[in-house]
Prior knowledge:
This protein is α+β, with helices and mostly antiparallel strands and about 130 residues long. The protein has helices at about 15-25, 80-95, 130, and strands spanning about 1-10, 25-30, 40-45, 45-55, 70-80, 100-105, 110-115, 120-125. Keywords: Dioxygenase, Oxidoreductase.
Amino acid sequence: xxxxxxxxxxxxxxxxxxxxxxxxxxxxxxxxxxxxxxxxxxxxxxxxxxxxxxxxxxxxxxxxxxxxxxxxxxxxxxxxxxxxxxxxxxxxxxxxxxxxxxxxxxxxxxxxxxxxxxxxxxxxxxxxxxxx
Length: 132
């Protein structure tokens, strides 16, 4: 298993994008059409940081609350093979931990979302072709 990506939901994605591209050295890259504004930032050709514009973000006039709420939405771990994926499913079932499966058809990936504690979400993802 390896770290896959981190998603941040914030009111000012342009500022975050500028920081992570111009200061931290990430590169903006391809992003699926999710229906919400945002950016995928890449490190070593991997999309490691997903920025999502908060739907209730302030208008373009720039007026913002003094401390706009932002949040880290979830972390993701990539599973490399079907055996490891099945072991994960078994561990979740054995512990009666609920999860939700979701496929990203454009990227041909299987996603599994689990909320181990309130307000904390972890995504596990595997390439669909690895599942057979």
